[in-house]
Design a protein that fits this description.
- It is built from 5 helices and no strands.
- The chain has about 250 residues and is mainly α.
- Helix 2 (about 30-35) packs across helix 4, helix 3 runs antiparallel to helix 4 (about 85-170) and helix 4 packs antiparallel against helix 5.
- The radius of gyration is 35 Å and the shape is rod-shaped.
Length: about 250
Amino acid sequence: MSLQWLSAAAFLYTEIALGLLFCAGFISNARWQSIFTSRLLALVKQFGNFFFSAFVLLLFVLFVDSVFNTYRFSKIDTRNVDLRNNPQAEIQAHMKLFRAQRNLYITGFSLFMLIVLRRLVTLISAQAKLEASHEAITKQAKGASEQAKKLMDENESLRKGKRAQTSDSEESESTNDNGKLLKQIEALKEDLKSSEERYEKSEKSLSAMKAQAEGLHKEYDRLLEEHNILEKKLSIAGVGSTDCHSEGKKDS
């Protein structure tokens, strides 16, 4: 295997390792988001973007070349080569076809894994942002609930104070104080109402975020299932090519 195909194979194995690492559950989405937005990765993107683009272009050229070789070696010209009297030529032809197919699978899956990894990074970043927003909304909702409870306790205490003061109002002149207490109660009622409205809005936003997070989890599971199916197809294609090569050796 020449240097360019070794590089393509190493790139594919690296992509598979990154995909499995992204799918692992022991690293949180927030940690991945911090890695994606780190200074080191930004520096690598700044100085390595040109080289990475050049490598992807080279990988695409290798993919086109492997497609052409697969098509060329899949059709053996029997007019120039007598396969019955020269079995070694048949072995050589099958070997070239096997190598062309192997190179086709390597470059094709490398290009496909680029799309899968890009999608995984996008989903992980979106999931991390949703989790951060969900946490902030939950804290806000808890604060609004505590504030509403506090206002209700104050309202209840003011009502009790009002009852006690009205019983003593027959003996003292406290009409002005009662009016002030009533105004305070009305103001507290308005504050309680606004707090309840804010709490309801927070609950609605939280439900919407949960629905979006569930949709992202389903999309993530679907991509993982497609990735597993493609790996099975790759392994089946590799086994089929190896069996074809072994059958050629037995015929010789």
